């Protein structure tokens, strides 16, 4: 057996080997929190304090769960498959699959991702004839998710006015629709599990007896429901080992409550609060930058980070005139990093918003550099994949109305809007699913719908007992999707993606091991259980605490859950040594040798939306702290004077975060354009109480303060033109001006006689 502990510093060692009581490890980025958590699991098992089946570990993403599983596998000679290690959603899904009856769900319940949820809500509003301008679907979705995250069902929500009463009524109708269709949204996965365990004492006691050790990474980003869920799982006696960093709390917009850390300390009677202050990830300048920046936040629990690594290199700052130029600069820098021997996968390009990736992707593509995008449009969110998945969903659960509507006439088979209306009427009248309502529709509509039902039944019949990837192939053949796309102009890509789905199914089967081990047993109530099913004195089905992996899903159900839950991974690009592109949010917990933080502009990062929210700027600053602390050795910061976003050119000021970084840690690569020569784009920040840092902006809101990009000017010879770029500084300023039919001119602003128009 290897010595798990020899690579730890004294504080880490203390944390790993704490007695079996609840503990909080509060520590900054890169101080080894995740490493401590993983090592503690291994240590608990190795010292015989708990069997792998007695561990419940929660990670923030599926990717993190995979990595942790792999690390544990390397540390210990055990089969990690039986461990309950995953995200809150993944773990709840597993629990609900095992106890679907008690949870009041059909065995083949399916998961709505947020896109599906929104379309389910739109459909609901339509069926109830609700004005979707007055009650926007997105607002309703937010309302519902927010209520669920507070643990509230529709009848628990207090509404003080008619408008909110309507929302509550729609929330109830939405839940009803989901129940009828056998689908659950993300928040429902958690709430349903929470309610199940609250209500069902034997089941709760079973899991409490089983999971003696509960470990949670990224604890600062738990929401209230997750926190209460943990409380329920822990009961009176189990040890919850929570690690987190309040400075990295970046999901408040999704209900995360950093106050849970304080509550945890009190409610779990934490006697062991351990701080880790040694950073092992980043060089000194990078760490200084992170520390100096985050010191501008007021609401902090307080801790420090130091490193033994030297100062290292300064942070390289680049100012581009356009987003395209910024992208080209990134490519050049990345190329020279690679030429110096850096692995592509050790280079990350981070951005605040997904929309920024397009220009960078284009430049990478043109330069022929392999890259991989996380987040953004996920493989499983592409239209053609959604269609294919809808067929698979119908094969698994024909009562999923969303899936039904998506493909009933796709590819077209002569089922028009009128027929669908007839069908919806019948379904409403009898309170049944669309699929079940088909026999009630008569005439021509009835017979075309009947053929569709036959098609789905045929697919189910043909694929019985087939391995998953064969099922997918049969579905592709029978559905007519491939021939449909063959006739489409840009269909080749889509067909390729559909073929990719077969590979995704194959990969899934091999990774999850379906059909290889895990013999299936039927539980006392007929549910499929791999491993041993036990019945308690109360007749509750539970799983033997030491049984192997309880695989209660069919491979198809499991694959469909995976399609909904898998964090944004572009599978088509998997497995290559590629540059890593992602939002700052999805970079949480990761580390890279070299990191680019791009688009550091006011309104973009910090993002303008957060100006309206209380504490919005502090959250943006934490996000910047997360971004900076991803870098081990080299960090690049860039911003651009102009940027095309959402079809508009924006003229930007550099991010205020530059003023919050230590000057000595920065190395400016481009000549600095004096900020006063930028016009001030009025932004919501000016009114925000936290806008004190925006001093520069405020002193230049006067119109005559200088030349502005985007400003119209008059030249004696060339006539009217628009300033598109300004370069240089001080007395040496030049501007690119577009003079229409005279073309683009580069003029020295000190010499050219320009007038404002
Ligand atoms: P984050 O807050 O970003 O999630 P973290 O606190 O979880 O960071 P880890 O990812 O666990 O930090 O560790 C950061 C890096 O430091 C990893 O590469 C890890 O292997 C390394 N590391 C942690 N502890 C030690 C140690 N005692 N000796 C050497 N390297 C260490
Ligand atoms: Mg971590």
From TrEMBL:
<keyword id="KW-0413">Isomerase</keyword>
<dbReference type="GO" id="GO:0043138">
    <property type="term" value="F:3'-5' DNA helicase activity"/>
</dbReference>
<feature type="domain" description="UvrD-like helicase C-terminal">
    <location>
        <begin position="284"/>
        <end position="589"/>
    </location>
</feature>
<dbReference type="InterPro" id="IPR013986">
    <property type="entry name" value="DExx_box_DNA_helicase_dom_sf"/>
</dbReference>
<feature type="binding site">
    <location>
        <begin position="27"/>
        <end position="34"/>
    </location>
    <ligand>
        <name>ATP</name>
    </ligand>
</feature>
<dbReference type="InterPro" id="IPR000212">
    <property type="entry name" value="DNA_helicase_UvrD/REP"/>
</dbReference>
<dbReference type="Pfam" id="PF00580">
    <property type="entry name" value="UvrD-helicase"/>
</dbReference>
<dbReference type="GO" id="GO:0033202">
    <property type="term" value="C:DNA helicase complex"/>
</dbReference>
<keyword id="KW-0067">ATP-binding</keyword>
<keyword id="KW-0234">DNA repair</keyword>
<dbReference type="GO" id="GO:0003677">
    <property type="term" value="F:DNA binding"/>
</dbReference>
<dbReference type="Pfam" id="PF13361">
    <property type="entry name" value="UvrD_C"/>
</dbReference>
<keyword id="KW-0547">Nucleotide-binding</keyword>
<dbReference type="GO" id="GO:0009314">
    <property type="term" value="P:response to radiation"/>
</dbReference>
<keyword id="KW-0238">DNA-binding</keyword>
<keyword id="KW-0347">Helicase</keyword>
<keyword id="KW-0227">DNA damage</keyword>
<feature type="domain" description="UvrD-like helicase ATP-binding">
    <location>
        <begin position="6"/>
        <end position="283"/>
    </location>
</feature>
<dbReference type="GO" id="GO:0000725">
    <property type="term" value="P:recombinational repair"/>
</dbReference>
<dbReference type="InterPro" id="IPR014016">
    <property type="entry name" value="UvrD-like_ATP-bd"/>
</dbReference>
<dbReference type="GO" id="GO:0005829">
    <property type="term" value="C:cytosol"/>
</dbReference>
<dbReference type="InterPro" id="IPR014017">
    <property type="entry name" value="DNA_helicase_UvrD-like_C"/>
</dbReference>
<keyword id="KW-0378">Hydrolase</keyword>
<protein>
    <recommendedName>
        <fullName>DNA 3'-5' helicase</fullName>
        <ecNumber>5.6.2.4</ecNumber>
    </recommendedName>
</protein>
<dbReference type="GO" id="GO:0005524">
    <property type="term" value="F:ATP binding"/>
</dbReference>
<dbReference type="GO" id="GO:0016887">
    <property type="term" value="F:ATP hydrolysis activity"/>
</dbReference>
<comment type="similarity">
    <text>Belongs to the helicase family. UvrD subfamily.</text>
</comment>
<dbReference type="InterPro" id="IPR027417">
    <property type="entry name" value="P-loop_NTPase"/>
</dbReference>
<dbReference type="Pfam" id="PF21196">
    <property type="entry name" value="PcrA_UvrD_tudor"/>
</dbReference>
């Amino acid at each position: 057996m290897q010595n798990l502990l020899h690579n730890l510093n004294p504080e880490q060692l203390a944390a790993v080997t704490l007695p079996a009581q609840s503990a909080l490890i509060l520590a900054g980025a890169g101080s080894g929190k995740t490493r401590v958590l993983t090592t503690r699991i291994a240590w608990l098992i190795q010292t015989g304090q708990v069997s792998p089946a007695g561990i419940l570990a929660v990670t923030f993403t599926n990717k993190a769960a995979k990595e942790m599983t792999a690390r544990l596998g390397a540390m210990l000679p055990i089969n990690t498959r039986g461990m309950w290690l995953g995200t809150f959603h993944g773990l709840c899904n597993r629990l609900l699959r095992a106890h679907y009856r008690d949870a009041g769900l059909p065995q083949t319940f399916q998961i709505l991702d947020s896109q599906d949820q929104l379309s389910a809500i739109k459909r609901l509003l339509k069926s109830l004839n609700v004005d979707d301008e007055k009650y926007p679907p997105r607002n309703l979705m937010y309302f519902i998710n927010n209520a669920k995250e507070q643990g509230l069902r529709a009848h628990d929500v207090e509404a003080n006015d008619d408008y909110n009463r309507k929302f509550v009524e729609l929330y109830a109708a939405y839940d009803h629709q989901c129940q009828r269709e056998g689908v659950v949204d993300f928040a429902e996965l958690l709430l349903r599990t929470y309610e199940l365990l609250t209500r069902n004492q034997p089941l709760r006691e079973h899991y409490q007896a089983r999971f003696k050790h509960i470990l949670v990474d990224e604890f600062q980003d738990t929401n209230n429901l997750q926190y209460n869920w943990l409380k329920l799982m822990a009961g009176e006696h189990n040890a919850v080992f929570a690690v987190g960093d309040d400075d990295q709390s970046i999901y408040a917009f999704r209900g995360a409550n950093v106050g849970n850390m304080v509550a945890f300390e009190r409610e779990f009677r934490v006697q062991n609060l351990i701080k880790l202050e040694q950073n092992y990830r980043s060089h000194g300048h990078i760490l200084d930058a992170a520390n100096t920046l985050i010191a501008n936040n007021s609401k902090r629990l307080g801790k420090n980070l130091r490193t033994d690594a030297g100062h290292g290199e300064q942070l390289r700052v680049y100012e581009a005139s356009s987003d395209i130029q910024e992208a080209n600069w990134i490519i050049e820098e990345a190329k020279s990093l690679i030429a110096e021997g850096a692995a592509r996968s050790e280079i990350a390009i981070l951005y605040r918003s997904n929309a920024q990736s397009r220009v960078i992707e284009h430049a990478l593509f043109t330069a022929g550099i392999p890259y991989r995008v996380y987040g953004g449009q996920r493989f499983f969110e592409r239209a053609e994949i959604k269609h294919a998945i809808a067929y698979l969903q119908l094969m698994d659960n024909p009562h999923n109305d969303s899936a039904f509507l998506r493909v009933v006439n796709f590819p077209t088979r002569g089922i028009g809007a009128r027929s669908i209306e007839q069908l919806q009427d019948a379904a409403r009248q009898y309170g049944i699913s669309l699929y079940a309502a088909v026999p009630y529709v008569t005439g021509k509509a009835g017979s075309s719908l009947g053929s569709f039902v036959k098609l789905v039944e045929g697919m189910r019949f043909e694929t019985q007992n087939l391995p998953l990837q064969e099922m997918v192939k049969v579905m592709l053949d029978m559905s007519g999707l491939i021939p449909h796309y063959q006739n489409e102009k840009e269909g080749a890509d889509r067909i390729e993606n559909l073929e990719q789905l077969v590979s995704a199914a194959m990969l899934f089967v091999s990774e999850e091991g379906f059909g290889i081990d895990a013999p299936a047993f039927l539980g006392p109530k007929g549910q499929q259980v791999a491993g041993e099913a036990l019945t308690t004195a109360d007749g509750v089905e539970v799983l033997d605490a030491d049984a192997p992996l309880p695989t209660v899903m069919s491979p198809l159900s499991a694959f469909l859950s995976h399609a909904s839950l898998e964090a944004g991974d572009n599978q088509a690009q998997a497995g290559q040594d590629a540059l890593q592109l992602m939002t700052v949010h999805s970079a949480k917990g990761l580390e890279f040798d070299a990191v680019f933080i791009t688009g550091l502009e006011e309104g973009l990062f910090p993002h303008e939306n957060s100006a309206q929210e209380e504490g919005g700027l502090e959250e943006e600053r934490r996000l910047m702290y997360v971004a900076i602390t991803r870098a081990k050795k080299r960090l690049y910061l860039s911003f651009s004077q102009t940027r095309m976003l959402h079809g508009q050119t924006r003229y930007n000021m550099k991010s205020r975060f530059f003023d919050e970084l230590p000057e000595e840690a920065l190395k400016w690569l481009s000549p600095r354009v004096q900020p006063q020569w930028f016009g001030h784009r009025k932004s919501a920040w000016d009114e925000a109480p936290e806008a004190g840092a925006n001093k520069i902006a405020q002193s230049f809101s006067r119109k005559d303060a200088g030349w502005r990009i985007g400003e119209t000017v008059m030249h004696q010879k060339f006539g009217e033109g628009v300033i598109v770029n300004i370069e240089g500084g001080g007395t040496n300023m030049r501007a690119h001006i577009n003079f229409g039919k005279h073309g683009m001119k580069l003029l020295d602003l000190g010499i050219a006689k320009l007038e404002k128009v």
